[in-house]
Amino acid sequence: MKLKSLEIAGFKSFANKTTISFTDGLTAIVGPNGSGKSNVIEAIRWVLGEQSSKTLRGTKMSDVIFSGSSTHNPVNRAEVKLTLDNSDQYINSSYSEIIITRRLYRSGESQYLINNSECRLKDINNLFMDTGMGLGSFSIISQGSVEDIFNSKPEDRRSIIETAAGVYKYKQQKHDANLK
Ligand code: ATP
Ligand code: MG
Prior knowledge:
Structural class: alpha+beta
Number of strands: 6
CATH superfamily of the largest domain: P-loop containing nucleotide triphosphate hydrolases
Oligomer: single chain
Helix content: 25-40%
Low-confidence stretches: none
Strand content: 15-25%
Radius of gyration: 17 Å
CATH class of the largest domain: Alpha Beta
Bound molecules: adenosine-5'-triphosphate, magnesium ion
Strand order of the largest sheet: 2-1-3-4-5-6
CATH architecture of the largest domain: 3-Layer(aba) Sandwich
Order of helices and strands: EEHEEEEHHHH
Largest sheet: 6 strands, antiparallel
Distance between the termini: 34 Å
């Protein structure tokens, strides 16, 4: 499984549709301060279902919608689309290409799609659970999080190891079954 491309439109500093293609090997994004490098990573977090506006450096979720600049008017919708190559079936889905889309409108309406079909946030969470790519996994390591792992309490560190080992999914299913 690997990232194929990321399409960002109306999200944070990306007023116009911007596509980043990930070719084989390493991709590095470079640019001056404030040019939107962190916004690219936040777009990936967001499309994977991030619900915390604080994690995205905002106070409310609509802060992710492009709010205008000296050259562009504000827009009414943020959209991020992440395309994954799943030809190795690493993600438990029959699709060899998986496209995840998230949209948010100023009206508050929001949409999640898997391969252009509308779905629930839960479906996206389930798709990535225990793949090592979902939220709470370690595919995105932000500044300071390495120190957090070293400095965390033993029980918190245990949960980090459980997530990395793929046990978390079963704990979550047990928790859900107990609620039924
Ligand atoms: P650094 O090198 O300092 O880490 P960076 O390349 O990571 O910088 P970002 O933090 O990704 O830069 O981008 C910050 C820019 O994004 C700021 O100029 C900010 O005004 C802009 N920005 C954030 N949210 C929005 C929004 N909703 N609408 C318009 N611009 C936004
Ligand atoms: Mg940055």
